[in-house]
Amino acid sequence: MKSFRRILFLQHAILILGMFLFIVLSSIFSSKLSLEYENKYVKQISSILAENLKLITEIYPNRYLIEESMRRAVKDIPSLNGMCLSLGLEKYCYPEKLNLKYSCSGNEILHNENEIVVCFPVYEEYASQFLEKKKEGYFLAVFNRNYVEQVRNYWFLDSLLISVFFIAFASLIITSIWIDISVDFNKLKKFIDDLKKPDRAFIPLEKQIENFKIEEFKNVAQLIVKLAKEVSHLNEYIKELAITDPLTGLYNRNYLNIVLQKNFIPFWKREKFPLTVALLDIDNFKSLNDIYGHQKGDEVLRKLGQIIRNSIRESDIPIRFGGEEILIIFPSSKKEEAVKAVKRIRENLVKENFGIGRPVTFSSGLADFPDDITVPGELEKLIKLADERLYIAKNRGKNRDILD
Amino acid sequence: MVRVAILILILVFDVSAWAADVCIVNSYPIPPAREVESRVRELLKEHHYNIVNSNCNVKVLIGTPAVVKELNGNDNCKRVYTFVLFPERLGLQNRENFYGVRVFPLPERTYRRFLKSLCLKKKKVAVPISYEMLSIARIYLKNPYFVPIPFKNSPVETFRELLKYKYVYVFPDPKLLKLVNLVTLVNFCHDNGLLVFSGLTDLSRFNLDYVDKLDFEKLAEDIVFLVENSPKEKILPCPCRER
């Protein structure tokens, strides 16, 4: 896939090449056209002169009058060097040396070194077209080639300059358009680069949008921000879903395995603060499920999750550990302090009426650092101890907390 | 029934085989000649003639150069010509297989129409003519009413003589029909109360008092008539419209 800069460069190169070719081709074409016009010009001037002279010869065929007319025409037309009119046996030339210098055989335009010689036959003209025209003689006009070519060159240069001016003007407009697009495109690129950064914030990016000149680029940037925001929200939601238990609203074991192992335990090892682990298990939950159905069990779990969230500190970490087992990590708390929170949870749960004719209770086992383990970071060992103590609590008649 | 059908088929093939091949040679690149040529082509097609370029039974010749070329040729096919100003000068009236239509009316006929059109009395008609054309003009100006008045270079030479007459006929004389000469003559005649008339149809734009109007449609029809027939009168009169 080509980059925008490359496309821009290529298109500019093609444009410049095309314009160069256009100028070259138009120059060649203009040159040919100007030569054609030059021939037309000398031929038209010659035929007008021939017509006039022929008319004079018909009205008053006098040599001096004709030669005087020729002299005046040569004087009045700067590009004309001289001319000859031959009618029958009579031949009139101005200047007279032309008579010897040139001969005319047909309808032709000759380009000599310094002169252009136009030659064409002259026919008798009649008032009626029913009379056949007869060749009466010929007319020859000699033009100054340098002068004619000078006029032609001026015309050619004029047209070339005009075309170059227009092409330059067009190039300027196109280049300015491309520059505008390029500037906005670079802004968009920077905008996307900023968006890719992990620590990016949306508000400064939204301010950047105002800097775009072209409406379409602005719309694209706005769309990108909108999509990025939606993606970010979706990411947050997915992350939330990955570490949260949807029934209880507590963290799930993914949180324990990924987040705690990765971030929390190294921190605990470093800071060596006291930490208590409490493992809670709802008493007779299996029989509750069997008698009242899973919906009732789910209701109890949902309520328990709510009570736990409301009864512990912000820094405590509640996790749905198993089916009806809840793990609560109390950082910076010894088990004597943590058990208060556990008891508060029990009190609140017992108050709840689930419509089963008896209160729902739970048993718990607690273990802490530094009383139960000596090395911080051994969370699994603490959980195992808490589990053993939960087992003891169950065996001792349930609805109790075992700390030792 | 089958025999009749075969007979009809044979007849149809025979008829198509009899259709003559006609060549058209136009040596006169002027609009009226081209108009007549295209009309003749149309009419010949309508009459089921084959128009070919060579090996033809009849040649339609338009213009004097085409006729002159044919006069020098050995071909013996029938020739029908027009746009020849002076066929008598080429002796075409005596030539076998040459039939034509005049492109300008005989002076007598023009004179009759001129008198009738302007309700004039018959009087002598002055005809300025160059010495070069005098012999030819005499062939056409047999009527004693036409008086040729010759000139050498310009019709101006005849002006004094012209004043003795009331009518002036413009003969198709190249020298007389040079633009300056004709304009000078017409101006002189109008200035002196002389009436100018001619048989050349396209002189009407020069403000002559009477000019015959050539009927090109009829001219084309006459040519086709001559292709199909060989009348005793070998040169048909110029078809003119009545004014």
Protein architecture, described:
The complex is a heterodimer of chains A (404) and B (243). By secondary structure, chain A is of the alpha+beta class. Chain A folds into 3 domains: 149 residues, Beta-Lactamase; 45 residues; 150 residues, Reverse transcriptase/Diguanylate cyclase domain (Alpha-Beta Plaits, 2-Layer Sandwich), CATH 3.30.70.270. In chain A, the strands form 2 sheets. Chain A has a 5-stranded antiparallel beta sheet with strand order 2-1-5-4-3. A 5-stranded mixed beta sheet of chain A has the order 7-8-6-9-10, with helices on both faces. In chain A, β3 and β4 form a beta hairpin. With 243 residues, chain B is α/β, with parallel strands linked by helices. Chain B has 2 domains: 129 residues, Response regulator (Rossmann fold); 105 residues, Rossmann fold (3-Layer(aba) Sandwich), CATH 3.40.50. Chain B is 39% helix and 21% strand. Chain B has a 6-stranded parallel beta sheet, with helices on both faces. Chain B is elongated, with a radius of gyration of 22 Å. Chain B starts with a helix and ends with a strand. Chains A and B meet through α1 of A and α7 of B.
Instruction: Work out the count of structural domains of chain A.
Output: 3
Tell me the overall shape of chain A: rod-shaped
Q: What structural category characterises the helix and strand content of chain A?
A: alpha+beta
Largest sheet of chain B: 6 strands, parallel
Average of per-residue pLDDT values of chain A: 87
Radius of gyration of chain B: 22 Å
Mean pLDDT of chain B: 88
| Low-confidence sequence ranges of chain B | 9-17
The number of domains of chain B is: 2
Helical run tally of chain A: 11
How many β-strand runs of chain B? Answer: 13
Please identify the structural class of chain B as seen in this structure: alpha/beta
CATH arch. level architecture of the largest domain in chain B = 3-Layer(aba) Sandwich
What global shape of chain B is seen?
elongated
